[in-house]
Amino acid sequence: RRELKIYNWNLKINDNKMDHLTTQLSQSEKNIFLQQEIMGRRIRMIYKQGKLFPVKIMFSSESFMDLLKRAKYIDKVMAYDKSVFINYENELNELNSKKKALIHAKSNILLYKNKATAKKKEILGEKNKKKQFLSKLNKEKKLNRRLKDELVQSSKELNILISRLETKMINGEGIDIVDKKGSLFPPVSGNLLTQFGRKRDKKFNSYIVSNGIHIEIKKGTAVRSIFNGKVLYTGTLEGYGNIIIVGHGMNYHSLYGHLDEITTISGKTVRSGQIIGRSGDTGSILGESLYFEMRQNGKPIEPTAWLT
Fold first, then answer.
1. Which one of 3.40.50, 1.10.287, 1.10.3430, 1.25.40 gives the CATH number of domain 2-136?
2. Among 66, 186, 250, 293, which is disulfide-ready with 61 (CB 3.0 to 4.6 Å)?
3. Fold of the CATH domain 171-305
């Protein structure tokens, strides 16, 4: 914007300069015309009088004093003629100089007009980019809020489901998952996409709570039970896609989400490391991955602390 102001300021200066030069040029052309009139009359007079006119005047003097007066008169006439020609030459040079200055001022005006137009387009383009960025940012904020709300709602629904399933759980004999804390094999091997717990989103200055972890894994990878237990639920839950919930006794549960395929059934007893499904991307906003969650007494717990 500052650059545009400078261009407009230079444009105004050159406009004023051109107006002033135009006025001066008009006056100079009038002066040249008058000088030409005077020179024309003088040249015609000299032509009529002939080349020997000064000699005739000198020799027609009646006395020496008259001769001196005539010589002085001739000097003044010659000085006048010289001044007429010099004034004409000066006026002509000044006219040409003003014409050049006028052309230069016009060139500057065109230059600054083009620069100002280009800068206006640039500023308009930047405004549009900023507008598009803000629009995109608002959409992302709305999406972030919606995802956060969906995550909270999905978590509530999962709590209700686990609470209902706890009454149906039958603990297997000898199951003691607590003794295996920190040494359980993960359901799949892959990189973590998300961490457990409450995380601050710097971009939107808000917090997102994750009750589990997302593990990056290709679709169709075998998903294994982390410990012995009983399949309490198989089905679909909004926000989790196809899920399996396994009860491991002592009110511990594990959940496997975003599955592409479920290879077990509700009520079936499973062993540690047994394949229970295939990974996929159902209900996932992160693409192909496995959502894994652990709960104790219906409350989410840090799953990575239990895995080897």
1. 1.10.287
2. 66
3. Glucose Permease (Domain IIA) (2.70.70)
Please tell me the distance from the alpha carbon of residue 294 to that of residue 302, in angstroms, as a whole number.
Answer: 7
Contact between 233 and 266 under an 8 Å Cβ cutoff? The reply is: yes
Residue of 301, 297, 183 whose CA lies nearest to 250:
297
194-251: pLDDT as tens digits: 999 988 766 666 777 899 999 999 999 999 999 999 999 999 998 899 999 999 988 9
Q: CA 4: distance to chain centroid? A: 19
Q: Where are the domains of the chain?
A: 2-136, 171-305
Residue 255 contacts residue 295 (beta carbons within 8 Å): yes
Nearest alpha carbon to residue 37 among 98, 95, 97, 87: 87
Question: Residue 166 pLDDT > 50, yes or no?
Answer: yes
Residue type at position 293: E
* Better-predicted residue by pLDDT, 99 or 308: 308
Task: For residues 204 and 86, give the distance between their C-alpha atoms in angstroms, rounded to a whole number.
Answer: 80
> C-alpha angle with apex 52: 34 to 67, nearest 5 degrees?
95
More confident residue, 255 or 64: 255
| Cross-strand bridge partners of residue 194 | 214
Under 8 Å between Cβ of 297 and 165: no
pTM assigned to the model:
0.50
Residues with Cβ within 8 Å of residue 95, at least 6 apart in sequence: 25, 28, 29, 32
